Fold this sequence. Notes:
Distance between the termini: 18 Å
Bound molecules: nicotinamide-adenine-dinucleotide
Order of helices and strands: EHEHHEHEHEEEHEHEHEHEEHHEEH
Strand order of the largest sheet: 2-1-3-12-11-4-5-10-8-9
Structural class: alpha/beta
CATH superfamily of the largest domain: Isopropylmalate Dehydrogenase
Amino acid sequence: MNMNIACISGDGIGPEIVAEAKKVLDKVSSVYGHEISYTDVLMGGCSIDVNGVPLTDETIEICKNSDAVLMGSIGGNTSTSPWYKLEPSKRPEAGLLKLRKSLNLFANLRPAVLYPQLRGACPLKEEISAAGFDMLIMRELTGGLYFGERKTYEENGMMKAVDTLTYTEEEIRRIAVKGFEIAKVRRGKVTSVDKANVLDSSRLWRKIVNEVAEDYPDVEVEHMLVDNCAMQLVKDPAQFDVILTENMFGDILSDEASMVTGSIGMLASASMNDTSFGLYEPSHGSAPDIAGLNVANPLATIISAAMMLKYSFGLHTESEAIEKAISSVLDQGYRTGDIMSEGMKKVSCSEMGDLVVANIK
Length: 361
Ligand code: NAD
């Protein structure tokens, strides 16, 4: 297969971690007989330095014309970097928001996996973490409360603020289809999370999810109220496969799910549109405090690259080869500083990339 990938290394540790992900993709391609071509583009602070803006039309076009986008992270130290003296619409993060919008990336996928080798970092009780967990939060990204009409005004001498939570049938259907499609290639279970006991938008959500479920008889579907889901994530996270939910619930639940893994350097993410196109990036930021030191953990970016192979290119064996290689490296006791524990062998960012490459079979 030929894969045409736009590559945004970005700022801070971005170039270091993306270099390692590329090494791993190159090794997988040579083992399994694929061709990858990368087009490097600027976004974020590095684009401000060169172009005066965080995202150019040229970068958007290159991303649109590629099969997928691999990204490191963008942004700098928000207290000291000159990028944050610019008006908000010209800062690094504005570039990412505009890119997501331009590419119509409405589905955000965040896996939260507890690797058995990193169980010690999990803040949950041992009897809960012993079962391990491997879930994926599928969050609607471009609708709901964050995009509804809002206003603050005075009424009868009292300040009043209104936010509006709106979803159309079409917006719910397209994310539900994504959720069921992805559950099909995982363990075949969707937990749809809403607040249908109170909210009309949630009642419509539940109705449409049930309609979509009829097309996926092999996928089990259950509905859970968001307050219960927040409790279940810390009580019994192993029960979840795909959690499908709207924008604000997903924002909160995905942070909760990632915190229970305990390891920020291991958390990948993908944002997709209604085709197989997606933007793949670690969940963490550009870590300016450790930039240029070759100590960052590249695994979240490498796992994001594995997600890209699975979800954008349908290359499941190749994606699993990366996951297995990471597991072997952890079994062998290698750790970057952020996931280091007693008795393990500390390695640099580039050494971790080399180790994953060496373990790809
Ligand atoms: P951060 O995630 O960059 O860092 C938080 C802490 O985690 C730091 O101590 C950092 O050293 C550590 N860390 C993060 N990734 C690591 C890795 N791979 N290996 C080892 N340690 C790692 O969050 P922050 O400091 O709040 O933000 C820094 C910059 O990143 C800001 O400009 C912020 O806006 C930006 N940011 C970008 C994205 C993105 O590109 N999508 C996401 C979040 C934050």
